[in-house]
Amino acid sequence: DGHQVDLVVVALVFIELGVAIIGLAFLTRLANKWGFSAIPLYLLAGLAFGNGGILPLQFSEDFVRIGAEIGVLLLLFMLGLEYSGEELSANLKTGLPSGIVDFLLNFPPGLVTGLLLGWSPLAAILLGGVTYISSSGVIAKVLAELGRMNNRETPIVISILVLEDLAMAVYLPLVAVLLIGLEISQAAISILVALATVSVVLFIAVKYGKRLSALITHQSDEVILFTTFGMILLVAGIAQRLQVSAAIGAFLMGIAVSDSIAERTHKLLGPSRDLFAAIFFLFFGLQVDPASLPPVLLIAVSLGIVTTVTKLFTGWWSARRANVDSAGAFRAGAALVARGEFSIVIAGLGVSAGLEPQLGALSAAYVLFMAIIGPILARFIEPMAMGIIERDKSV
């Protein structure tokens, strides 16, 4: 009967998810043995086992998608724990020139490529957004894996990521309105609401962070875990509803939690972050049909090489401007290379509107390439940079 069929379906979902998570454990073990980030392996596994892959698995898509979104929230929350509200405010004030350079170097490659391909101006603007914004989720994971959270260049990277997310608060509502042909005044209202939301949350994080931490703190680890996790979801949901990235809401929530409780929170949520983050990268790969990649692969890789160089320069220039040494400046540049969740959201807007048939495939190929090359480059940039520095000294 129907009840038995439901039980069979649930059993199959459990089996597939169990196999997938054991597979993630194997890939993590392999990455640790080889000494580099597991993220590229997670992405390739998703590509292999998604629709059109070597062995397609019929996951419960809604369950995995929610798990993936929670992974991004936890990654950004844990990143926020590393910084105080005062540090973030100072970095944003001093980092505005870096944010401008970031936009001027990384938006035009996508825009120009779209126009050269004969796309409409709006489709080209969407591709510009895809190439512009780095992946906060991938970068947070890489920084944690490589033990660089407390490096001198990391606040520079964080300030650029936050400025990019703030730029998205303007970009996404504007593009959404243009796609459905509404009045610019409606876009302006959405943008003002988004910016006001970020300002209010940042103000609360700076002014009332200690009071918020006092509400969370408790002798019971369970109370701290449930309260913190619930507040992350609540703040992220409200932020998303007000046209702000849920990820930036989670990040600001992390900023608001002060040092007194941050260490316990980090310890309690760390394992959950690792699990859900791995699901996020797996899910990302599952969304890409391998058959759609070959026709656009050459364009995607060429665009990826150009924007790898532009992101490297963005991070290097920004770090050197802040008097970070050359090795740290190269690390900052490499950290910014990966693209991810936001780029796919931007491309998805155009695909949903039927704007340009190649936009989805090209964006997927580009993001997959950048999400793989970014962690690898972040891992190996330091020895490469030190070789360049030593060679220049000898010359």
Description:
It is a single chain. This protein has 395 residues and is mainly α. The protein is 82% helix and 0% strand. The chain is built from 15 helices and no strands. Helix 13 runs antiparallel to helix 15 and helix 14 (341-352) runs antiparallel to helix 15 (357-394). The N and C termini lie far apart (79 Å). The model has no long low-confidence stretch (mean pLDDT 81).
Mean pLDDT over the full residue set: 81
Provide the structure class.
mainly alpha
Uncertain ranges: none
What characterizes the major β-sheet?
Answer: none
State the share of residues found in helices, binned by percent: over 70%
Along the chain, the helix and strand elements come as HHHHHHHHHHHHHHH
Q: Could you state the oligomeric state of the chains shown?
A: single chain
Number of helices: 15
Q: Per DSSP, what share of the residues sits in E-state strands of 2 or more residues?
A: under 5%
Number of strands: 0
How many whole angstroms does the radius of gyration measure? 21 Å
Overall 3D shape: globular
Q: In whole angstroms, how far apart are the ends?
A: 79 Å
